[in-house]
Design a protein that fits this description.
56% of the residues lie in helices and 2% in strands. The protein has seven helices and two strands, in the order H-H-H-H-H-H-H-E-E.
């Protein structure tokens, strides 16, 4: 029975020093799967969990409005649980391993159009005053280097390698200087 594996699995996750919230997410997903099995009147024995049962579960999640990314994350958590059961010799093979769940990452890139770039450069060219060259350099630098304004703000002279003609762009954690 799947329920018999929950307690040792929970201890296994805690021993691996996984974040408590992550442990709860993994256990919660197995519990959600058990609830699904109960609704569908499927005996929650490990041997009863087939690829068809998992296909039906993931389809049910999709039908209930879960995104593909959420379903992929749930599949990953179940895969981990069934890997554990396989390692302990409770099942011969992990039924989730053969599942192909697409994880889609939607990234919305926001680019300036050519007209917007021309307008921006023209606006800087029309500027006069003490900061004209600085502003123009910054705008052209941002446009052609493809770096974020926050990355430009963090630049200092030590980040520029004049010998190699490179700018070292270190990744910063939130809250660091």
């Amino acid at each position: 029975m799947i329920e018999d594996m929950l307690s040792p699995y929970f201890l296994h996750l805690e021993e691996k020093c996984i974040n408590k919230a992550t442990v709860n997410d993994y256990i919660s997903e197995v519990s959600n799967f058990l609830c699904y099995l109960g609704k569908k009147k499927i005996d929650p024995k490990l041997d009863n969990i087939s690829e068809d049962v998992l296909d039906a579960y993931f389809a049910w999640l999709s039908d209930n409005g879960y995104s593909e990314t959420s379903i992929a994350e749930r599949a990953r958590r179940l895969r981990h649980f069934f890997d554990y059961c396989e390692d302990k010799g409770k099942i011969s093979s992990n039924p989730v391993k053969k599942q192909i769940v697409q994880k889609t990452i939607s990234v919305m890139h926001d680019y300036l159009t050519n007209d917007e770039i021309k307008t921006l450069v023209a606006a800087v060219n029309n500027e006069t005053g003490i900061n004209y060259l600085r502003d123009k350099l910054l705008i052209v630098f941002l446009l052609y280097m493809g770096i974020r304004h926050s990355e430009v703000a963090r630049l200092n002279w030590s980040a520029i390698d004049f010998e190699e003609s490179m700018i070292l762009n270190k990744k910063w954690k939130k809250g660091t200087v």
